[in-house]
């Protein structure tokens, strides 16, 4: 039998990840537009040329993350959704054909992790099961091979992502929404994918898979551990729980993430202010102060930013969870408060999620309290410490109260937003059906409306039927499962999409005309030879 070899996989090339990529994504031409993304500023070479970032691996690893999540999701369903942290495994788990059906011995090895199986005196736990493992070691090992490879892939994914994040954060001087926007989105999407992969890994029995595989290897190979055992033990242990490992791994890039989260704060505030969105016409083709002017040019840039608000909210929820020190920035508390108050769960993949506020209580609050204690000890010496102490105190108060506020207010907040979107999307459909020539000039506003509507629909279905954790006052959230606004929004989204498809040629023509008018400036900024626009 050909046993798993860590060295047999290509470490830094596409073939390693081909299992997780589609044929198109793993082809050499994939993500070609990302290959030579140039960066302006002092990081350009001394000769006057520009340094080019290889962005293809960044985009590709985000796609690999989706493949890893899909594989873990499949394993989780095969094993009947176990709870490895409480060592709760159903009968279906043992009958799934992945783990040997010897609960006592397998659970003991998982509970005693990271202790080596040889030190556990397993013959005293279940002598019959140990003998049965010995007799059928090869078959059991074969059943586990693809899942031990999954652990190896998670390890290699971690190492590659951290290398790329380090390279990007040390190369790109500015990462803000209006400067290096494409690089920023690729950078933050990769970080969020990395976080979600590792949070999800806590739902699969990593310790049991590793320990059982290794003892089977010992039985077959005359007492020798498998070659990657100690590396995987260190990896799994450092990510137990995953948030602890993420805190340590992302500490070096924490200030960059904090800067980004502060920068997207104004757009998040705008997206939650339904009164301002309505009164100032952010989602209306009519100019807010001059109703006779049809094309609304009042807020083109901010309307464009609204199209990214779903990503920005995810950045905030995940960013402060894994970089808690960034909550101690002066404006961060307001950004975090807005997003935490309107969410109860943190989606990971498909219908899998973790409870948002519990994780903030367990992993973020202790870090804030630690910062508060350190600042308090230095208060008499420095004014900066006094300010840090006050900020930490405010963040502590916010984190201890925001869960109750979310339970009370989140449904009302989103219901008000759904009513606004139902009205604005409905008006858009009527207006652009009657005036299709104005669709192209207003296309960014249409995209923003669709993005906000999609965000609300997804939030609704993620939260309907969710059993929130126990609140201190025993409150639960009761979301109306028959809310009619959802149907209206979905219908309006469908009609808007049909209009965009119908007039796609005109929209492309308008965009190309706009780009052509900017060609001279683009050439000047890029410093490229003169080429005709196509």
Any descriptors?
single chain, 534 residues, mainly alpha, two-stranded antiparallel ribbon, two-stranded antiparallel sheet, 22 helices, 4 strands, disordered C terminus
The gist of it:
The chain has 534 residues and is mostly helical. Helices cover 63% and strands 2% of the residues.
Q: Please compute the radius of gyration using only Cα atoms.
A: 26 Å
Number of strands: 4
What would you call the shape?
globular
The helix/strand order is HEEHHHHHHHHHHHHHHHEEHHHHHH
Please give the largest β-sheet: 2 strands, antiparallel
Low-confidence sequence ranges: 5-12, 29-51, 470-474, 530-534
Helical residue percent band: 55-70%
What is the CA-CA span between the terminal residues?
56 Å
Query: Average pLDDT value?
Result: 85
Question: SS-based structural class?
Answer: mainly alpha
Helix count equals: 22
Strand fraction band?
Answer: under 5%
Read across the widest sheet, the strand sequence of neighbours is 1-2
């Amino acid at each position: 039998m050909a046993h798993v070899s860590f060295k047999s996989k290509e470490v830094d090339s596409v073939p390693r990840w081909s299992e997780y990529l589609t044929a198109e994504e793993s082809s050499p031409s994939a993500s070609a537009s990302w290959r030579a993304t140039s960066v302006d500023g002092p990081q350009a070479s001394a000769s006057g040329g520009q340094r080019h970032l290889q962005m293809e691996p960044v985009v590709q690893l985000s796609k690999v993350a989706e493949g890893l999540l899909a594989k873990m999701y499949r394993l989780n369903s095969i094993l009947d959704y176990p709870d490895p942290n409480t060592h709760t495994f159903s009968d279906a788990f043992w009958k799934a054909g992945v783990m040997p059906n010897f609960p006592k011995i397998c659970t003991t090895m998982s509970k005693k992790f990271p202790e080596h199986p040889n030190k556990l005196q397993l013959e005293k736990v279940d002598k019959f099961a140990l003998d049965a493992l010995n007799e059928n070691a090869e078959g059991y090992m074969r059943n586990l091979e693809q899942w031990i490879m999954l652990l190896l892939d998670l390890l290699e994914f971690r190492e590659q992502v951290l290398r790329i994040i380090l390279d990007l954060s040390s190369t790109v001087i500015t990462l803000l929404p209006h400067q290096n926007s494409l690089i920023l989105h690729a950078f933050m999407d990769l970080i969020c994918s990395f976080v979600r992969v590792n949070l999800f890994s806590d739902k699969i029995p990593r310790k049991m898979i590793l320990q059982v595989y290794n003892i089977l290897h010992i039985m077959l190979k005359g007492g020798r551990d498998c070659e990657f055992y100690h590396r995987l033990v260190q990896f799994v242990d450092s990510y137990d729980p995953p948030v602890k490992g993420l805190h340590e791994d992302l500490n070096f890039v924490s200030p960059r993430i904090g800067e980004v989260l502060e920068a997207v704060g104004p757009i998040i505030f705008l997206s939650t202010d339904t009164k301002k969105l309505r009164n100032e016409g952010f989602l209306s083709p009519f100019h807010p102060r001059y109703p006779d002017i049809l094309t609304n040019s009042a807020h083109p840039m901010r309307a464009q930013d609204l199209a990214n608000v779903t990503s920005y909210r995810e950045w905030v929820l995940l960013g402060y969870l894994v970089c808690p020190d960034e909550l101690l920035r002066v404006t961060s508390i307001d950004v975090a408060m807005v997003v935490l108050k309107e969410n109860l769960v943190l989606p990971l993949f498909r219908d899998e999620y973790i409870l948002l506020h519990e994780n903030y209580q367990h992993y973020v609050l202790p870090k804030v309290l630690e910062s508060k204690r350190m600042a308090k000890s230095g208060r008499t010496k420095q004014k900066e410490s006094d300010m840090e102490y006050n900020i930490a105190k405010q963040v502590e108060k916010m984190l201890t109260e925001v869960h109750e506020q979310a339970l009370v207010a989140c449904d009302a907040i989103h219901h008000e937003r759904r009513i606004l979107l139902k009205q604005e999307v409905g008006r858009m459909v009527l207006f652009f059906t009657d005036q299709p020539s104005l669709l192209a000039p207003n296309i960014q506003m249409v995209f923003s409306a669709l993005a906000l509507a999609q965000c609300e629909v997804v939030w609704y279905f993620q939260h309907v039927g969710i059993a929130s954790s126990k609140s201190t006052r025993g409150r639960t959230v009761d979301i109306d499962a028959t809310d009619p606004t959802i149907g209206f929004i979905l219908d309006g989204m469908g009609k808007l999409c049909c209009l965009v498809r119908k007039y796609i040629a005109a929209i492309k023509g308008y965009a190309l005309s706009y780009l052509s008018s900017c060609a001279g400036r683009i050439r000047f900024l890029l410093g490229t030879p003169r080429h005709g626009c196509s």
